[in-house]
Amino acid sequence: MFTAIFASVEAGFIYAIMALGVYLSFRILDFPDLTVDGSFVTGAAVAAVLIINGTNPFIASFVALLAGFVAGCITGLLHTKGKINPLLSGILMMIALYSINLRIMGKSNVPLLQEESVITILTDWWQKIGIDEMIENALISMKLVDFVPKTWAIVVLMALLVIIIKILIDQFLKTEIGLALRATGDNKRMITSFSANTDVLTIFGLGLSNALVAFSGALVAQYGGFSDVGMGIGMIIIGLASVIIGEALFGANSIARATLAVIGGAIVYRIVVTLALRVQFLETGDVKLITAFIVIAALILPQFIASQNEKRRKKLKSQRRGEHVATAQTDYKSI
Amino acid sequence: MLQLKQITKVFNEGTVDEKVALHSIDLTLAPGDFVTIIGSNGAGKSTLMNIISGRLFPDTGSVLINGKDVTEMCEHQRARYIGRVFQDPLVGTAPNMTIEENLALAYGRTRKRTLQFGVTKKRREFFKETLETLQLGLEHRLNAKVGLLSGGERQALSLLMATFTNPDLLLLDEHTAALDPARAELITELTKNIVEKAKLTTLMVTHNMEQALKLGNRLIMMDGGQIIFEASGKEKEKLTVEKLLQEFQRIRGSQFTSDRVVLV
Ligand SMILES: Nc1ncnc2c1ncn2[C@@H]1O[C@H](COP(=O)(O)OP(=O)(O)OP(=O)(O)O)[C@@H](O)[C@H]1O
Ligand SMILES: [Mg+2]
Fold this sequence. Notes:
heterodimer, A: mainly alpha, ABC transporter involved in vitamin B12 uptake, BtuC, 2 strands, 78% helix, B: alpha/beta, six-stranded mixed beta sheet, globular, binds adenosine-5'-triphosphate, binds magnesium ion, transmembrane helix (chain A), Putative ABC transport system permease protein (chain A), membrane (chain A), cell membrane (chain A), ABC_transp_permease (chain A)
Protein backbone atom coordinates (compact mmCIF):
# COMPACT_ATOMS: atom_id res chain seq x y z
CA MET A 1 0.00 0.00 0.00
CA PHE A 2 2.59 2.54 1.11
CA THR A 3 4.91 1.39 -1.65
CA ALA A 4 2.20 2.04 -4.21
CA ILE A 5 1.51 5.51 -2.85
CA PHE A 6 5.20 6.23 -2.68
CA ALA A 7 5.54 5.32 -6.35
CA SER A 8 2.59 7.51 -7.27
CA VAL A 9 4.22 10.46 -5.53
CA GLU A 10 7.39 9.82 -7.55
CA ALA A 11 5.40 9.72 -10.77
CA GLY A 12 3.36 12.70 -9.61
CA PHE A 13 6.43 14.90 -9.50
CA ILE A 14 7.50 13.86 -12.99
CA TYR A 15 4.02 14.40 -14.43
CA ALA A 16 3.85 17.72 -12.59
CA ILE A 17 6.28 19.13 -15.15
CA MET A 18 3.77 18.26 -17.87
CA ALA A 19 0.95 19.76 -15.79
CA LEU A 20 2.91 23.02 -15.45
CA GLY A 21 3.15 23.11 -19.24
CA VAL A 22 -0.61 22.63 -19.52
CA TYR A 23 -1.07 25.39 -16.95
CA LEU A 24 0.92 27.74 -19.18
CA SER A 25 -1.23 27.12 -22.23
CA PHE A 26 -4.65 26.73 -20.60
CA ARG A 27 -4.47 29.28 -17.84
CA ILE A 28 -1.80 31.80 -18.77
CA LEU A 29 -2.39 31.93 -22.53
CA ASP A 30 -6.05 30.91 -22.29
CA PHE A 31 -5.36 28.56 -25.20
CA PRO A 32 -6.86 25.04 -24.99
CA ASP A 33 -3.86 23.33 -26.55
CA LEU A 34 -4.33 19.66 -27.44
CA THR A 35 -0.82 19.35 -28.91
CA VAL A 36 0.12 17.89 -25.53
CA ASP A 37 -0.99 14.34 -26.38
CA GLY A 38 1.51 14.35 -29.22
CA SER A 39 4.36 16.44 -27.83
CA PHE A 40 4.52 14.31 -24.66
CA VAL A 41 5.34 11.28 -26.80
CA THR A 42 7.68 13.33 -28.99
CA GLY A 43 9.71 14.06 -25.87
CA ALA A 44 9.72 10.40 -24.89
CA ALA A 45 10.57 9.25 -28.41
CA VAL A 46 13.41 11.71 -28.96
CA ALA A 47 14.99 10.92 -25.59
CA ALA A 48 14.59 7.15 -26.03
CA VAL A 49 16.10 7.04 -29.50
CA LEU A 50 19.01 9.30 -28.54
CA ILE A 51 19.75 7.28 -25.40
CA ILE A 52 19.70 4.00 -27.31
CA ASN A 53 22.17 5.50 -29.75
CA GLY A 54 24.54 6.35 -26.92
CA THR A 55 23.78 9.99 -26.22
CA ASN A 56 24.17 11.18 -22.65
CA PRO A 57 20.67 10.90 -21.07
CA PHE A 58 20.81 14.47 -19.75
CA ILE A 59 21.57 15.82 -23.20
CA ALA A 60 18.92 13.52 -24.69
CA SER A 61 16.32 14.90 -22.27
CA PHE A 62 17.32 18.45 -23.17
CA VAL A 63 16.98 17.74 -26.89
CA ALA A 64 13.53 16.28 -26.14
CA LEU A 65 12.63 19.58 -24.50
CA LEU A 66 13.72 21.48 -27.62
CA ALA A 67 11.67 19.14 -29.83
CA GLY A 68 8.60 19.93 -27.72
CA PHE A 69 9.32 23.63 -28.06
CA VAL A 70 9.34 23.33 -31.85
CA ALA A 71 6.08 21.34 -31.84
CA GLY A 72 4.38 23.99 -29.69
CA CYS A 73 5.66 26.79 -31.92
CA ILE A 74 4.15 25.08 -34.97
CA THR A 75 0.76 24.88 -33.24
CA GLY A 76 1.16 28.57 -32.49
CA LEU A 77 1.99 29.31 -36.11
CA LEU A 78 -1.06 27.37 -37.32
CA HIS A 79 -3.25 29.45 -35.04
CA THR A 80 -1.74 32.93 -35.43
CA LYS A 81 -0.52 32.94 -39.03
CA GLY A 82 -2.84 30.27 -40.43
CA LYS A 83 -5.83 31.73 -38.53
CA ILE A 84 -6.93 28.23 -37.53
CA ASN A 85 -9.05 27.95 -34.43
CA PRO A 86 -7.03 27.04 -31.28
CA LEU A 87 -8.64 23.62 -30.67
CA LEU A 88 -8.23 22.61 -34.28
CA SER A 89 -4.61 23.79 -34.45
CA GLY A 90 -3.81 21.60 -31.47
CA ILE A 91 -5.68 18.58 -32.81
CA LEU A 92 -4.00 18.86 -36.21
CA MET A 93 -0.61 19.03 -34.57
CA MET A 94 -1.46 16.11 -32.29
CA ILE A 95 -2.42 13.93 -35.26
CA ALA A 96 0.63 14.97 -37.25
CA LEU A 97 2.88 14.22 -34.28
CA TYR A 98 1.53 10.68 -34.00
CA SER A 99 3.09 9.82 -37.34
CA ILE A 100 6.20 11.85 -36.62
CA ASN A 101 6.69 10.06 -33.31
CA LEU A 102 6.43 6.70 -35.07
CA ARG A 103 9.06 7.90 -37.55
CA ILE A 104 11.35 9.02 -34.76
CA MET A 105 11.12 5.69 -32.93
CA GLY A 106 11.01 3.53 -36.07
CA LYS A 107 8.59 1.21 -34.26
CA SER A 108 5.75 1.62 -31.82
CA ASN A 109 7.68 0.75 -28.69
CA VAL A 110 11.30 1.38 -27.67
CA PRO A 111 12.38 -0.36 -24.46
CA LEU A 112 14.93 1.44 -22.26
CA LEU A 113 15.28 -0.95 -19.35
CA GLN A 114 18.82 -2.00 -20.25
CA GLU A 115 19.97 1.57 -20.82
CA GLU A 116 21.55 4.10 -18.58
CA SER A 117 19.04 6.91 -17.99
CA VAL A 118 18.71 10.13 -16.04
CA ILE A 119 16.85 8.08 -13.45
CA THR A 120 19.51 5.38 -13.06
CA ILE A 121 22.38 7.88 -13.04
CA LEU A 122 20.76 9.99 -10.36
CA THR A 123 19.83 6.95 -8.26
CA ASP A 124 23.38 5.57 -8.44
CA TRP A 125 24.86 8.92 -7.47
CA TRP A 126 22.38 9.27 -4.61
CA GLN A 127 23.07 5.83 -3.24
CA LYS A 128 26.81 6.52 -3.31
CA ILE A 129 26.37 9.45 -0.93
CA GLY A 130 24.46 7.13 1.38
CA ILE A 131 21.49 9.31 2.23
CA ASP A 132 19.14 6.38 1.88
CA GLU A 133 20.78 4.57 4.78
CA MET A 134 20.52 7.66 6.92
CA ILE A 135 16.82 8.01 6.25
CA GLU A 136 16.30 4.29 6.67
CA ASN A 137 18.03 4.28 10.06
CA ALA A 138 15.98 7.26 11.12
CA LEU A 139 12.79 5.51 10.06
CA ILE A 140 13.76 2.30 11.86
CA SER A 141 14.58 4.19 15.03
CA MET A 142 11.18 5.86 14.73
CA LYS A 143 9.67 2.33 14.52
CA LEU A 144 8.30 2.87 11.03
CA VAL A 145 10.01 -0.27 9.78
CA ASP A 146 7.11 -1.61 7.79
CA PHE A 147 7.64 1.13 5.23
CA VAL A 148 11.08 1.27 3.64
CA PRO A 149 11.15 2.34 0.00
CA LYS A 150 13.99 1.16 -2.25
CA THR A 151 15.41 4.62 -2.65
CA TRP A 152 14.49 8.21 -1.91
CA ALA A 153 16.57 9.43 -4.84
CA ILE A 154 13.77 9.93 -7.36
CA VAL A 155 11.26 11.50 -5.03
CA VAL A 156 13.73 13.98 -3.60
CA LEU A 157 15.55 14.87 -6.80
CA MET A 158 12.40 15.12 -8.91
CA ALA A 159 10.75 17.27 -6.25
CA LEU A 160 13.79 19.51 -6.38
CA LEU A 161 13.70 19.66 -10.15
CA VAL A 162 9.98 20.49 -10.19
CA ILE A 163 10.42 23.20 -7.57
CA ILE A 164 13.24 24.74 -9.61
CA ILE A 165 11.07 24.71 -12.73
CA LYS A 166 8.19 26.20 -10.77
CA ILE A 167 10.35 29.03 -9.46
CA LEU A 168 11.72 29.72 -12.93
CA ILE A 169 8.17 29.95 -14.30
CA ASP A 170 7.06 32.21 -11.44
CA GLN A 171 9.98 34.54 -11.99
CA PHE A 172 9.66 34.51 -15.77
CA LEU A 173 6.01 35.51 -15.55
CA LYS A 174 7.09 38.62 -13.64
CA THR A 175 9.49 39.81 -16.30
CA GLU A 176 8.47 42.31 -18.95
CA ILE A 177 8.11 39.54 -21.52
CA GLY A 178 6.33 37.32 -19.00
CA LEU A 179 3.84 40.05 -18.14
CA ALA A 180 3.16 40.61 -21.84
CA LEU A 181 2.60 36.86 -22.21
CA ARG A 182 0.05 36.88 -19.40
CA ALA A 183 -1.66 39.92 -20.87
CA THR A 184 -1.88 38.09 -24.21
CA GLY A 185 -4.01 35.47 -22.45
CA ASP A 186 -5.94 38.07 -20.49
CA ASN A 187 -6.71 40.86 -22.95
CA LYS A 188 -5.27 40.72 -26.46
CA ARG A 189 -6.64 44.07 -27.61
CA MET A 190 -5.20 45.82 -24.62
CA ILE A 191 -1.69 44.45 -24.90
CA THR A 192 -1.66 45.08 -28.66
CA SER A 193 -2.39 48.72 -27.95
CA PHE A 194 0.71 48.68 -25.73
CA SER A 195 2.90 47.55 -28.63
CA ALA A 196 3.23 43.84 -27.91
CA ASN A 197 3.12 41.38 -30.79
CA THR A 198 0.54 38.89 -29.54
CA ASP A 199 1.26 36.44 -32.39
CA VAL A 200 4.89 36.08 -31.39
CA LEU A 201 3.97 35.83 -27.73
CA THR A 202 1.35 33.14 -28.39
CA ILE A 203 3.81 31.12 -30.47
CA PHE A 204 6.52 31.46 -27.86
CA GLY A 205 4.14 30.63 -25.01
CA LEU A 206 2.91 27.46 -26.71
CA GLY A 207 6.53 26.53 -27.44
CA LEU A 208 7.40 26.91 -23.78
CA SER A 209 4.36 24.93 -22.68
CA ASN A 210 5.11 22.01 -24.99
CA ALA A 211 8.80 22.11 -24.13
CA LEU A 212 7.85 21.30 -20.53
CA VAL A 213 5.40 18.63 -21.69
CA ALA A 214 8.03 16.94 -23.88
CA PHE A 215 10.64 17.14 -21.12
CA SER A 216 8.20 15.45 -18.80
CA GLY A 217 7.59 12.80 -21.48
CA ALA A 218 11.33 12.19 -21.73
CA LEU A 219 11.58 11.66 -17.98
CA VAL A 220 8.49 9.44 -17.87
CA ALA A 221 9.99 7.22 -20.58
CA GLN A 222 13.20 6.86 -18.59
CA TYR A 223 11.31 6.31 -15.35
CA GLY A 224 9.00 3.70 -16.85
CA GLY A 225 11.73 2.08 -18.95
CA PHE A 226 10.13 2.47 -22.37
CA SER A 227 8.76 4.90 -24.90
CA ASP A 228 5.49 3.95 -26.54
CA VAL A 229 3.64 5.68 -29.34
CA GLY A 230 0.39 5.42 -27.38
CA MET A 231 1.68 6.75 -24.08
CA GLY A 232 0.34 10.25 -24.75
CA ILE A 233 -3.32 9.34 -25.19
CA GLY A 234 -5.39 11.40 -22.77
CA MET A 235 -2.33 13.24 -21.49
CA ILE A 236 -4.07 16.59 -21.93
CA ILE A 237 -6.86 15.45 -19.64
CA ILE A 238 -4.36 14.30 -17.01
CA GLY A 239 -2.69 17.72 -17.25
CA LEU A 240 -6.02 19.49 -16.96
CA ALA A 241 -7.05 17.23 -14.09
CA SER A 242 -3.89 18.24 -12.24
CA VAL A 243 -4.51 21.93 -12.87
CA ILE A 244 -8.17 21.77 -11.87
CA ILE A 245 -7.69 19.54 -8.82
CA GLY A 246 -4.77 21.69 -7.72
CA GLU A 247 -6.70 24.91 -8.04
CA ALA A 248 -9.73 23.45 -6.26
CA LEU A 249 -7.68 22.09 -3.35
CA PHE A 250 -4.92 24.64 -2.96
CA GLY A 251 -6.26 27.85 -4.54
CA ALA A 252 -4.87 30.03 -7.29
CA ASN A 253 -4.77 33.57 -5.94
CA SER A 254 -1.35 34.36 -7.29
CA ILE A 255 0.89 32.81 -9.91
CA ALA A 256 3.22 31.35 -7.29
CA ARG A 257 0.28 29.82 -5.48
CA ALA A 258 -1.24 28.48 -8.69
CA THR A 259 1.94 26.77 -9.89
CA LEU A 260 2.36 25.17 -6.48
CA ALA A 261 -1.27 24.05 -6.65
CA VAL A 262 -0.68 22.49 -10.06
CA ILE A 263 2.21 20.41 -8.68
CA GLY A 264 0.04 19.38 -5.74
CA GLY A 265 -2.78 18.55 -8.14
CA ALA A 266 -0.51 16.31 -10.22
CA ILE A 267 0.50 14.33 -7.15
CA VAL A 268 -3.02 14.09 -5.75
CA TYR A 269 -4.22 12.87 -9.14
CA ARG A 270 -1.63 10.06 -9.17
CA ILE A 271 -2.53 9.01 -5.65
CA VAL A 272 -6.26 9.00 -6.37
CA VAL A 273 -5.76 6.87 -9.48
CA THR A 274 -3.52 4.44 -7.59
CA LEU A 275 -6.06 4.08 -4.81
CA ALA A 276 -8.93 3.71 -7.26
CA LEU A 277 -7.15 0.91 -9.08
CA ARG A 278 -6.96 -1.04 -5.83
CA VAL A 279 -10.72 -1.29 -5.81
CA GLN A 280 -11.60 -4.91 -6.74
CA PHE A 281 -13.72 -4.43 -9.84
CA LEU A 282 -11.57 -1.76 -11.52
CA GLU A 283 -8.88 -2.75 -14.02
CA THR A 284 -5.85 -0.98 -15.46
CA GLY A 285 -7.81 -0.22 -18.59
CA ASP A 286 -10.26 1.83 -16.54
CA VAL A 287 -7.68 4.52 -15.82
CA LYS A 288 -9.06 6.88 -18.44
CA LEU A 289 -12.57 6.45 -17.12
CA ILE A 290 -11.36 7.15 -13.60
CA THR A 291 -9.55 10.23 -14.89
CA ALA A 292 -12.70 11.51 -16.53
CA PHE A 293 -14.58 11.00 -13.26
CA ILE A 294 -11.91 12.81 -11.26
CA VAL A 295 -12.00 15.81 -13.58
CA ILE A 296 -15.78 15.92 -13.53
CA ALA A 297 -15.77 15.72 -9.75
CA ALA A 298 -13.12 18.43 -9.48
CA LEU A 299 -15.18 20.66 -11.74
CA ILE A 300 -18.56 20.05 -10.14
CA LEU A 301 -17.76 19.66 -6.44
CA PRO A 302 -16.45 23.23 -5.85
CA GLN A 303 -19.64 24.65 -7.45
CA PHE A 304 -21.78 22.33 -5.38
CA ILE A 305 -20.01 23.24 -2.16
CA ALA A 306 -20.24 26.95 -2.97
CA SER A 307 -23.97 26.75 -3.63
CA GLN A 308 -24.51 24.77 -0.43
CA ASN A 309 -22.61 27.42 1.54
CA GLU A 310 -24.62 30.14 -0.12
CA LYS A 311 -27.89 28.38 0.79
CA ARG A 312 -26.77 27.97 4.39
CA ARG A 313 -25.76 31.64 4.54
CA LYS A 314 -29.14 32.76 3.20
CA LYS A 315 -31.02 30.49 5.58
CA LEU A 316 -29.07 31.84 8.54
CA LYS A 317 -29.75 35.38 7.43
CA SER A 318 -33.49 34.86 7.03
CA GLN A 319 -33.63 33.11 10.40
CA ARG A 320 -31.89 36.06 12.00
CA ARG A 321 -34.25 38.45 10.29
CA GLY A 322 -37.14 36.37 11.63
CA GLU A 323 -35.79 36.80 15.16
CA HIS A 324 -35.48 40.53 14.63
CA VAL A 325 -39.04 40.76 13.49
CA ALA A 326 -40.16 38.71 16.47
CA THR A 327 -38.31 40.91 18.97
CA ALA A 328 -39.59 44.02 17.25
CA GLN A 329 -43.12 42.76 17.63
CA THR A 330 -42.72 41.97 21.29
CA ASP A 331 -41.16 45.41 21.76
CA TYR A 332 -44.18 46.90 20.13
CA LYS A 333 -46.55 44.93 22.35
CA SER A 334 -44.73 45.92 25.51
CA ILE A 335 -45.23 49.61 24.77
CA MET B 1 2.45 65.47 -35.73
CA LEU B 2 -0.33 63.55 -37.46
CA GLN B 3 -1.09 63.82 -41.14
CA LEU B 4 -3.93 62.06 -42.94
CA LYS B 5 -3.83 62.31 -46.70
CA GLN B 6 -6.80 61.42 -48.86
CA ILE B 7 -7.95 58.55 -46.65
CA THR B 8 -10.72 56.44 -48.14
CA LYS B 9 -12.24 53.32 -46.66
CA VAL B 10 -15.01 51.24 -48.19
CA PHE B 11 -16.51 48.24 -46.42
CA ASN B 12 -17.84 45.25 -48.39
CA GLU B 13 -16.85 46.78 -51.70
CA GLY B 14 -18.78 45.46 -54.70
CA THR B 15 -21.59 43.90 -52.66
CA VAL B 16 -25.06 45.13 -51.83
CA ASP B 17 -23.73 45.99 -48.38
CA GLU B 18 -21.12 48.35 -49.81
CA LYS B 19 -20.54 51.20 -47.41
CA VAL B 20 -18.22 54.14 -47.91
CA ALA B 21 -17.13 54.75 -44.33
CA LEU B 22 -14.52 57.40 -45.11
CA HIS B 23 -14.34 59.59 -48.19
CA SER B 24 -10.96 61.25 -48.92
CA ILE B 25 -10.27 62.58 -45.48
CA ASP B 26 -7.48 65.15 -45.11
CA LEU B 27 -6.46 66.19 -41.65
CA THR B 28 -3.29 67.61 -40.14
CA LEU B 29 -2.61 67.97 -36.44
CA ALA B 30 0.12 70.30 -35.21
CA PRO B 31 2.05 69.30 -32.08
CA GLY B 32 -0.06 70.03 -29.02
CA ASP B 33 -3.34 70.19 -30.95
CA PHE B 34 -6.33 68.85 -29.04
CA VAL B 35 -9.06 68.07 -31.56
CA THR B 36 -12.56 66.98 -30.58
CA ILE B 37 -14.64 65.09 -33.15
CA ILE B 38 -18.42 64.99 -33.20
CA GLY B 39 -20.75 63.47 -35.74
CA SER B 40 -23.91 61.45 -36.19
CA ASN B 41 -24.07 57.65 -35.93
CA GLY B 42 -22.14 55.90 -38.65
CA ALA B 43 -20.32 59.09 -39.63
CA GLY B 44 -17.03 57.18 -39.71
CA LYS B 45 -15.44 58.49 -36.52
CA SER B 46 -14.45 55.10 -35.12
CA THR B 47 -13.29 53.96 -38.54
CA LEU B 48 -11.02 57.01 -38.70
CA MET B 49 -9.57 56.25 -35.26
CA ASN B 50 -9.03 52.62 -36.22
CA ILE B 51 -7.21 53.61 -39.38
CA ILE B 52 -4.91 55.91 -37.44
CA SER B 53 -4.18 53.22 -34.84
CA GLY B 54 -3.59 50.51 -37.45
CA ARG B 55 -6.52 48.32 -36.49
CA LEU B 56 -7.88 48.93 -39.98
CA PHE B 57 -6.02 49.80 -43.15
CA PRO B 58 -7.22 52.45 -45.60
CA ASP B 59 -8.09 51.54 -49.20
CA THR B 60 -6.26 54.61 -50.44
CA GLY B 61 -4.37 57.45 -48.81
CA SER B 62 -1.62 57.58 -46.22
CA VAL B 63 -1.12 58.10 -42.52
CA LEU B 64 1.95 59.98 -41.29
CA ILE B 65 3.02 60.28 -37.69
CA ASN B 66 5.89 62.66 -36.95
CA GLY B 67 6.50 62.89 -40.69
CA LYS B 68 6.96 59.13 -40.89
CA ASP B 69 4.71 57.14 -43.19
CA VAL B 70 3.10 54.46 -41.04
CA THR B 71 0.35 53.43 -43.46
CA GLU B 72 1.71 49.88 -43.82
CA MET B 73 2.79 49.50 -40.20
CA CYS B 74 0.74 47.05 -38.13
CA GLU B 75 -1.14 47.95 -35.00
CA HIS B 76 1.36 46.84 -32.37
CA GLN B 77 4.28 48.58 -34.07
CA ARG B 78 2.35 51.81 -34.42
CA ALA B 79 1.43 51.62 -30.75
CA ARG B 80 4.92 52.90 -29.98
CA TYR B 81 3.70 56.34 -31.04
CA ILE B 82 0.08 56.13 -29.96
CA GLY B 83 -1.72 56.02 -26.63
CA ARG B 84 -5.34 54.88 -26.74
CA VAL B 85 -8.38 54.75 -24.49
CA PHE B 86 -11.37 52.75 -25.68
CA GLN B 87 -15.07 53.28 -25.14
CA ASP B 88 -15.46 50.02 -23.23
CA PRO B 89 -13.60 50.18 -19.87
CA LEU B 90 -13.01 46.42 -20.17
CA VAL B 91 -10.83 46.80 -23.26
CA GLY B 92 -8.10 49.04 -21.89
CA THR B 93 -6.84 46.96 -18.98
CA ALA B 94 -5.98 43.33 -18.17
CA PRO B 95 -8.55 42.25 -15.55
CA ASN B 96 -6.69 39.30 -14.05
CA MET B 97 -3.51 41.24 -13.49
CA THR B 98 -2.79 43.71 -10.71
CA ILE B 99 -2.78 47.48 -11.00
CA GLU B 100 1.00 47.65 -10.85
CA GLU B 101 1.33 44.87 -13.44
CA ASN B 102 -1.00 46.76 -15.75
CA LEU B 103 1.07 49.88 -15.32
CA ALA B 104 4.20 47.87 -16.07
CA LEU B 105 2.59 46.64 -19.29
CA ALA B 106 1.75 50.20 -20.27
CA TYR B 107 5.26 51.32 -19.31
CA GLY B 108 6.60 48.84 -21.86
CA ARG B 109 4.78 50.53 -24.74
CA THR B 110 7.74 52.60 -25.85
CA ARG B 111 10.59 50.21 -25.18
CA LYS B 112 11.69 46.73 -26.11
CA ARG B 113 10.46 44.17 -23.59
CA THR B 114 13.24 42.18 -21.92
CA LEU B 115 13.73 39.56 -19.21
CA GLN B 116 14.07 42.32 -16.66
CA PHE B 117 11.38 42.33 -13.95
CA GLY B 118 8.37 44.38 -15.02
CA VAL B 119 7.79 45.84 -11.58
CA THR B 120 10.98 46.93 -9.84
CA LYS B 121 11.25 48.90 -6.61
CA LYS B 122 12.09 52.05 -8.50
CA ARG B 123 9.23 51.62 -10.94
CA ARG B 124 6.77 50.87 -8.15
CA GLU B 125 7.61 54.23 -6.60
CA PHE B 126 7.10 55.89 -9.96
CA PHE B 127 3.78 54.07 -10.49
CA LYS B 128 2.62 55.17 -7.05
CA GLU B 129 3.44 58.80 -7.75
CA THR B 130 1.66 58.66 -11.09
CA LEU B 131 -1.43 57.02 -9.56
CA GLU B 132 -1.60 59.73 -6.91
CA THR B 133 -2.39 62.27 -9.63
CA LEU B 134 -5.72 60.48 -10.18
CA GLN B 135 -6.70 61.09 -6.56
CA LEU B 136 -8.74 57.89 -6.47
CA GLY B 137 -6.63 56.17 -3.84
CA LEU B 138 -5.48 53.57 -6.34
CA GLU B 139 -1.90 54.09 -5.16
CA HIS B 140 -2.81 52.10 -2.04
CA ARG B 141 -4.15 49.19 -4.07
CA LEU B 142 -1.16 48.39 -6.29
CA ASN B 143 -1.67 44.66 -5.80
CA ALA B 144 -5.41 44.59 -6.40
CA LYS B 145 -6.63 42.85 -9.53
CA VAL B 146 -7.88 45.40 -12.04
CA GLY B 147 -11.02 43.31 -12.63
CA LEU B 148 -12.16 44.34 -9.14
CA LEU B 149 -12.18 48.06 -9.99
CA SER B 150 -15.34 49.95 -10.95
CA GLY B 151 -15.84 51.02 -14.56
CA GLY B 152 -14.87 54.59 -13.75
CA GLU B 153 -11.75 53.54 -11.88
CA ARG B 154 -10.77 51.26 -14.72
CA GLN B 155 -11.26 54.00 -17.26
CA ALA B 156 -9.22 56.43 -15.16
CA LEU B 157 -6.48 53.82 -14.97
CA SER B 158 -6.70 53.25 -18.75
CA LEU B 159 -6.34 56.96 -19.31
CA LEU B 160 -3.30 57.10 -17.07
CA MET B 161 -1.78 54.04 -18.74
CA ALA B 162 -2.28 55.55 -22.19
CA THR B 163 -0.73 58.87 -21.27
CA PHE B 164 2.00 58.52 -18.63
CA THR B 165 4.54 57.43 -21.22
CA ASN B 166 3.90 60.63 -23.24
CA PRO B 167 2.67 59.24 -26.56
CA ASP B 168 3.18 61.31 -29.71
CA LEU B 169 -0.52 60.97 -30.32
CA LEU B 170 -3.43 60.25 -27.98
CA LEU B 171 -6.62 58.68 -29.39
CA LEU B 172 -9.81 58.76 -27.31
CA ASP B 173 -12.87 57.12 -28.86
CA GLU B 174 -15.90 58.02 -26.73
CA HIS B 175 -13.95 57.08 -23.65
CA THR B 176 -16.56 58.52 -21.30
CA ALA B 177 -19.64 57.18 -23.09
CA ALA B 178 -19.99 53.99 -21.04
CA LEU B 179 -19.87 55.80 -17.70
CA ASP B 180 -22.58 57.39 -15.58
CA PRO B 181 -22.65 61.22 -15.69
CA ALA B 182 -20.65 61.76 -12.48
CA ARG B 183 -17.90 59.35 -13.54
CA ALA B 184 -17.90 60.76 -17.05
CA GLU B 185 -17.40 64.22 -15.59
CA LEU B 186 -14.46 62.94 -13.55
CA ILE B 187 -12.79 61.33 -16.56
CA THR B 188 -13.40 64.45 -18.66
CA GLU B 189 -11.73 66.55 -15.99
CA LEU B 190 -8.79 64.13 -15.77
CA THR B 191 -8.44 64.11 -19.56
CA LYS B 192 -8.31 67.89 -19.62
CA ASN B 193 -5.66 68.08 -16.91
CA ILE B 194 -3.46 65.32 -18.28
CA VAL B 195 -3.55 66.53 -21.88
CA GLU B 196 -2.87 70.13 -20.88
CA LYS B 197 -0.05 69.24 -18.52
CA ALA B 198 1.81 66.99 -20.95
CA LYS B 199 0.77 69.01 -24.03
CA LEU B 200 -0.30 65.80 -25.75
CA THR B 201 -1.45 65.89 -29.34
CA THR B 202 -4.95 64.46 -28.98
CA LEU B 203 -7.87 63.31 -31.07
CA MET B 204 -11.07 62.76 -29.09
CA VAL B 205 -14.37 61.41 -30.38
CA THR B 206 -17.38 62.32 -28.26
CA HIS B 207 -21.16 62.40 -28.44
CA ASN B 208 -21.29 65.00 -25.75
CA MET B 209 -21.39 68.37 -27.51
CA GLU B 210 -20.73 70.24 -24.29
CA GLN B 211 -17.63 68.16 -23.80
CA ALA B 212 -16.55 68.75 -27.39
CA LEU B 213 -16.89 72.48 -26.91
CA LYS B 214 -15.27 72.56 -23.49
CA LEU B 215 -12.18 70.58 -24.37
CA GLY B 216 -9.50 71.19 -26.96
CA ASN B 217 -8.49 73.94 -29.30
CA ARG B 218 -10.08 72.50 -32.45
CA LEU B 219 -13.39 70.89 -33.27
CA ILE B 220 -14.35 68.72 -36.23
CA MET B 221 -17.80 67.63 -37.29
CA MET B 222 -18.11 64.50 -39.43
CA ASP B 223 -20.97 63.11 -41.45
CA GLY B 224 -21.23 60.44 -44.12
CA GLY B 225 -17.52 59.73 -44.06
CA GLN B 226 -16.49 63.34 -44.55
CA ILE B 227 -15.35 66.25 -42.45
CA ILE B 228 -18.15 68.74 -42.98
CA PHE B 229 -17.26 71.44 -40.49
CA GLU B 230 -14.18 72.62 -38.68
CA ALA B 231 -13.48 75.34 -36.15
CA SER B 232 -10.39 76.24 -34.19
CA GLY B 233 -8.99 78.76 -31.74
CA LYS B 234 -11.16 81.88 -31.15
CA GLU B 235 -13.77 80.67 -33.59
CA LYS B 236 -14.23 77.44 -31.62
CA GLU B 237 -14.43 79.27 -28.29
CA LYS B 238 -17.39 81.26 -29.59
CA LEU B 239 -19.33 78.13 -30.64
CA THR B 240 -22.40 76.92 -28.77
CA VAL B 241 -24.41 73.73 -29.02
CA GLU B 242 -27.22 75.57 -30.85
CA LYS B 243 -24.79 77.03 -33.37
CA LEU B 244 -23.33 73.58 -34.01
CA LEU B 245 -26.75 72.11 -34.67
CA GLN B 246 -27.69 75.00 -36.93
CA GLU B 247 -24.44 74.58 -38.77
CA PHE B 248 -25.14 70.89 -39.30
CA GLN B 249 -28.63 71.61 -40.63
CA ARG B 250 -27.33 74.35 -42.95
CA ILE B 251 -24.69 72.04 -44.47
CA ARG B 252 -26.65 68.82 -44.58
CA GLY B 253 -30.18 70.07 -44.86
CA SER B 254 -31.26 67.52 -42.25
CA GLN B 255 -31.40 67.04 -38.50
CA PHE B 256 -28.36 65.87 -36.60
CA THR B 257 -29.18 62.32 -35.60
CA SER B 258 -27.51 60.30 -32.93
CA ASP B 259 -28.77 57.87 -30.35
CA ARG B 260 -26.37 59.06 -27.73
CA VAL B 261 -25.99 62.74 -28.41
CA VAL B 262 -25.97 64.90 -25.30
CA LEU B 263 -27.07 68.42 -25.99
CA VAL B 264 -26.70 70.01 -22.60
N1 LIG C 1 -16.19 46.11 -40.13
C1 LIG C 1 -17.18 46.73 -40.80
N2 LIG C 1 -17.80 46.10 -41.82
C2 LIG C 1 -18.78 46.73 -42.51
N3 LIG C 1 -19.23 47.97 -42.23
C3 LIG C 1 -18.65 48.64 -41.24
C4 LIG C 1 -17.60 48.04 -40.46
N4 LIG C 1 -17.22 48.95 -39.52
C5 LIG C 1 -17.99 50.03 -39.71
N5 LIG C 1 -18.85 49.86 -40.73
C6 LIG C 1 -19.80 50.86 -41.23
O1 LIG C 1 -19.10 52.05 -41.54
C7 LIG C 1 -19.81 53.18 -41.11
C8 LIG C 1 -18.99 54.02 -40.17
O2 LIG C 1 -18.86 53.33 -38.94
P1 LIG C 1 -18.14 53.93 -37.67
O3 LIG C 1 -18.11 52.89 -36.63
O4 LIG C 1 -16.85 54.53 -38.06
O5 LIG C 1 -19.14 55.09 -37.24
P2 LIG C 1 -19.07 56.08 -35.99
O6 LIG C 1 -18.97 57.45 -36.52
O7 LIG C 1 -18.03 55.67 -35.05
O8 LIG C 1 -20.51 55.86 -35.39
P3 LIG C 1 -20.98 55.82 -33.87
O9 LIG C 1 -21.24 57.24 -33.49
O10 LIG C 1 -22.27 55.07 -33.90
O11 LIG C 1 -19.93 55.16 -33.05
C9 LIG C 1 -21.10 52.66 -40.50
O12 LIG C 1 -22.11 52.77 -41.45
C10 LIG C 1 -20.81 51.22 -40.19
O13 LIG C 1 -21.98 50.44 -40.31
MG1 LIG D 1 -17.92 54.89 -32.97
